[in-house]
What does this fold into?
Amino acid sequence: MVSSEQRNAVLPDDAGPLGIICGGGNLPLVIADAASRRGRRVVMFALRGFAAVEVERYPCHWIVLGALGRFFRLLRQEGCRDLVFIGTLTRPRFGRFRLDLATIRRLPRIARAFRGGDDHLLAGIARLIEDEGFRMVGAHEIAPDLLLPEGPLGTCVPSEQDQVDIEWGLALLAATGPFDIGQAAVVAGRHVLAIEASEGTDRMLDRVVALRKEGRIRVPAGTGVLVKAPKPQQDRRFDLPTIGPETVEAVARAGLAGLAAVAGAAIVAEPQRVAPLAEERGVFVVGIKPTGAGA
It folds into this structure.
């Protein structure tokens, strides 16, 4: 097993080829570019049905869920010891896996991993992979410069009421975290407008937009905060809260004042775009101290 010290250590540049298990979105390429800049060879393992074809910019193998035997063979063939899983992935239906013999042999463990929330599933699959001699590492270990710093990005800052809403949101996420549900909530005037579930942050914010149109949300535009924090028990090698330009656009579209995420425990995709876009849209983006849900 990998110790907490190993998990928290920044990997050396000569740690060998890095395997990136690619879900959807642009984060797999962001992490690949960061590793490549450090001189590390990258091999993409793209999940069919989820990963974007653009990941083929790097050496790439397309893989399917359930074919563990081929996956392990490819990892050893490429010399990959360290693996990162990054990108969006809809929780798969267990019955739709295309199982090979290696997967069938591990079915009892896989079935147990499915008996819980997303964190329980990811942790169970990670242990299975690590028992084969590989090491799962966090995206933040590969690209620590992508972690959200403490304080505002840009000149827009939260008001006193926004600060109250941020603390309210953190307390809410700390309370819901043990149930292994979402990592985000929208709060306005200490009133909870939305909690993220399996739909993800962007669709949760779409719900806020729809509720405004229906007259169900009556707080004025420019109030309310999107708060994001990891779950208290979360293995931070997987599924850290992520923000990016799309999040900023969605926050502005939802009529909120801004967004707050736990500093050092959230990834900023395309950080060079986030601050100027937030300025342009008139919303704040702030890294908050790791208290409450993010402690």
